[in-house]
Amino acid sequence: MDLVSGLLAGWSNCVGQMSLAMKISLSCSMVFAVYYKYKICKPPQLFCQKDVFRKFLATCVPTSVERFSPFFMTFGTTLQTVIGGVMRTLPRVPWDKVEDIELPDNGLVHLHWVNNNESSQYTERERPIVLFLPGLTGNNESNYILHFITGVKRKGYRCVCHDYT
Asked: What's 94's DSSP letter?
């Protein structure tokens, strides 16, 4: 009890000697810290039924249930997008093969392959394939697609990216 009362007395002495601007600044910082911890840092929202698929996500994709703590100065999604686009580097992905498949309705599908033959984690026959489908405004050279492919390639997987162009 003496330790707690001593700490409180020392804290009140310290606060008593602060200027008004410092007290307001400290108070705002403490309010922001509490707001950030309890309102901003949350696990991602999953929009699916609470059944087998959600349990699968929780066990196989642990980040789907972990709290996400964004950088405190960019906790808004717009700021994360802007800062991420400016700060992120563009990885180089060497495409092993570009495949064009003509469809019966005269459509054309472009597939860009990264075979990842240098990986020794899987044999050629057992190597998993990850398919990337960029958004409407994206393509196989989009920043986020190249980062995904770089990460998946590190795991030893084969990658194929559909290109709308």
From this structure: -
Tokens of 150: 């770089």
Q: Is the pLDDT of residue 5 over 70?
A: no
Amino acid letter, residue 52? V
Q: Residue 162: name the closest of 119, 103, 105 by CA.
A: 103
Q: Residue 61 — very low, low, confident or very high, per pLDDT cuts 50/70/90?
A: confident
pLDDT of residue 158: 93
What type of residue sits at position 80?
Q
pLDDT at 100: 93
Angle at the Cα of 107 from the Cα atoms of 106 and 109, rounded to 5 degrees: 140
Q: For 117-158, give the DSSP string.
A: TT--SS-TTT--EEEE---TT--TT-HHHHHHHHHHHHTT-E
